[in-house]
Amino acid sequence: MFSKMKNIDVAFRHVRTFTMLVIMACALVTCFALYRSFSLVSKMQDKVYILANGKALEAYASDRKDNVAVEARDHVKTFHKLFFTLDPDEKAIRENVNKAFYLADESAKRIYDDLKENGYYAGIISGNVSQTLVVDSIRIDTDEYPYQFECFATQKITRTTSVAYRSLVTKGNLRNISRSDNNPHGFLVERWKTLENKNLRTENRK
Predict the structure, then answer these.
(1) Strands of the 147-158 sheet, one edge to the other
(2) Half-sphere exposure of 152 (CA within 13 A, CB side)
(3) Residue 174, SS3?
(4) 149, 72 contact by CB (below 8 A)
(5) Rounded CA gap, 145 and 68, in Å?
(6) Tens digits of per-residue pLDDT, 115-129?
(7) How many CB atoms lie within 10 A of CB 37?
(8) Is the four-CA dihedral 73, 137, 196, 164 of positive or negative sign?
(9) Fewer CB atoms near the end CB (10 Å): N or C, the chain?
(10) Paired sense of beta strands 147-158 and 162-176, if any
(11) Under a CB-based contact definition with an 8 Å cutoff, are residues 174 and 147 in contact?
């Protein structure tokens, strides 16, 4: 009788020990699964998918500080191309310049008003002149805020009989603002001014 009770007690202890081991194993597996799930979700949040030409392309999100210089250069380049790309069409000029105004403060508007008052845009339209801009390089100082920049570019001015090339050097500051559809980089060009704008060469058109 006592032997049977002892066997039952030993068996019960074995079952209890086995059950505890199973519970601990389940708890470890559950904790590991939760850890891996949170880790996977965190990694997925850093991924961005962009739809281009009907294909989903994977990109990776990162902190803005990691891309300040890259975004700042692209902002400056976009602003200058919009402001200085001109065709003999008043509507096209107005559309480009209005897009540029979203990227800069009133200093850009003052330069536009001065050019307009001096008949620059009227001359573009009446003379059937096309102007494009190639940005050669952009220097950004991201060590101090607001960020200072210098833009070095070449203007190509196409007239009926000739093509003129002019060097353009500008400078200004960049201030952080909220991103929007009109300003995807979230920068604003401030205190923008021209340091140099001189003729390089003129070529006759054939």
Answers:
(1) 130-141, 147-158, 162-176, 187-204
(2) 5
(3) strand
(4) yes
(5) 11
(6) 999 999 999 999 999
(7) 10
(8) negative
(9) C
(10) antiparallel
(11) yes
pLDDT averaged over every residue in the chain:
86
The single residue listed with the structure tokens 């904790």 is 31
Cα→Cα distances 166→14, 81, 109, 169, Å: 91, 15, 22, 10
Amino acid at 4: K
pTM of the model as a whole: 0.69
**Token output for 93:** 């000029």
Are 97 and 112 in contact by the 8 Å Cβ rule? The answer is: yes
Beta-carbon contacts of 64 under 8 Å, excluding residues fewer than 6 positions away, are: 71
CATH architecture entry for 63-204? Roll (3.10)
Are the C-beta atoms of 194 and 169 separated by less than 8 Å?
Answer: yes
